[in-house]
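hiii so my PI (J.) wants the whole complex modelled not just the main chain, which honestly fair. so below is everything: two entries, each one labled with what it is. i double checked the lines twice but i was tired so who knows lol
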Amino acid sequence: MANYNQIRGLRVKYLSADPATSESGQVWYNSTTGSLRAAGIIGLGTWASGGGLNSARTNGCSGGLQTAALYAGGGSPGAVTELYNGSTWTTSPATMNTARFNMRGAGTQTSYIMTGGDPATGAESFNGSAWSNETAYPVSVSLIGAAGTDSAAVFFGGGTPITITNYWNGSSWSNQSSANQGGAANNGPLGAGQSDAVFLSGTELTGLQGRTQLWDGSSWTTSGTASTQGDSRSNMGTVGTNCVSAGGRTPSYTTAAEAFNGTAWSTTGSLASPKAAGGGAGTGAAGLAFGGNSSGSPDVTAITEEFTEATAATKTITTS
Amino acid sequence: MELFMYGTATNTGKGFFTHQDRQDFFLGGYPGDVWVIGKNEKGAVWLALKNGVEKTKTEAQAIVDTEVTAAQTAWDLMSVEEQNKRSGRPGPITLP
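here's the output for the full assembly
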């Protein structure tokens, strides 16, 4: 068995204090604390509690950033819009023009486009203070995937399953020729937009959950499969190379969360509370999961959790 | 050795549990404001600081069961249309 010296070409130093500077992978013994220390250890991302929604509900549309997110509609169905500032959700005086659920959207808290759901036709945009009706999506669809901005978004897939891809340019839809895997998408945008989108299938169709396809601006290619075979997860990620998907129904509600690096999914820190069909927003480094169904009574939750990606740190090596 | 302690505490939102808390001890939230907490000093301090009430595992499980049963009853009384808007009938939960 190789030892540290053989692997690293260095011996483990015996130091009275942690070095002021260290390289990733460097190991030393701290004689003051009596601990073996290593630099550049990357743990799992973690979830902390955030401010609760004012209106607990499921299946709304979501987007924006961890410090500037929105959650609209959802429920049975609803038109309420809530805005998050990094600590508190505030109910906007603006309500959607049509109460709906199971729709999806893309964009920011002040520039957002959504479509589909129930009712399955129509589209609306949000400018931070009001919703406006927009040109309807070309087909009736629910649980559609989305990524990008209010002026350059890509929408794809959907329940049934639907396999088409469409661009939104701020005023109209244009069909893209390449078919995708189809089926329901999870909630929350994944990817930068029209040249970078991640389609993580959360379809109800057995065997398709967790399947991933990547959009590069012209075609879909199949990528790694998430180990959590669930639907109704909360997504977060503004680039396709750094995304997180959390919670969902497997079929029981789960706390599991996974991160995507553009190639493969890997386990990251779990939510504190299991949930499904809530919203997702933010980036793979700083995300949000909120609302959704839980197993309690009532079966909808207002809980928000904030995700922070792990960073490299110096840690003590233990046997546990 | 017991790995977990159990308690009830109301999630007050931002700051109720932090990233550091999640690194310091296991924490799992369940219906009825039940929390399963990694049994170490920091976990115990967290529950105390949150004005939590420590429960036995049996007591905590009973709270969760009551919540789940209520949720299942409510679900069963819904119309099919309402049920289809949700993520399925709430299932049983067994605390770790």
